[in-house]
Design goal:
Pfam family, one: Zn_ribbon_GRF
GO molecular function: zinc ion binding
Largest sheet: 3 strands, antiparallel
Shape: globular
Keywords: Metal-binding, Zinc, Zinc-finger
InterPro entries: Znf_GRF (IPR010666)
Helix content: 25-40%
Number of domains: 1
Organism: Chenopodium quinoa (Quinoa)
Number of helices: 1
Amino acid sequence: MKCSYGLDAVVRTVKKGHNIGSKFYGCPKWSDVVWGGVQNTNCNFMKWIEASNEDELRFQIFEKDTTIAEMEF
């Protein structure tokens, strides 16, 4: 999944509000700059992750973690 800048979107989790715990894909440039008063440079890409896709997402994360662990050896 790519954001509007063509970068790999990152998975984020809502931490407050009525969607707390929900997961979504977002622009990787979105970070503390939003809260730190610095100009926001993200592309505002956001897509909810459907609950039915969470198992697939967990598997993808597991695969990436495994690949990283293998590369560290």
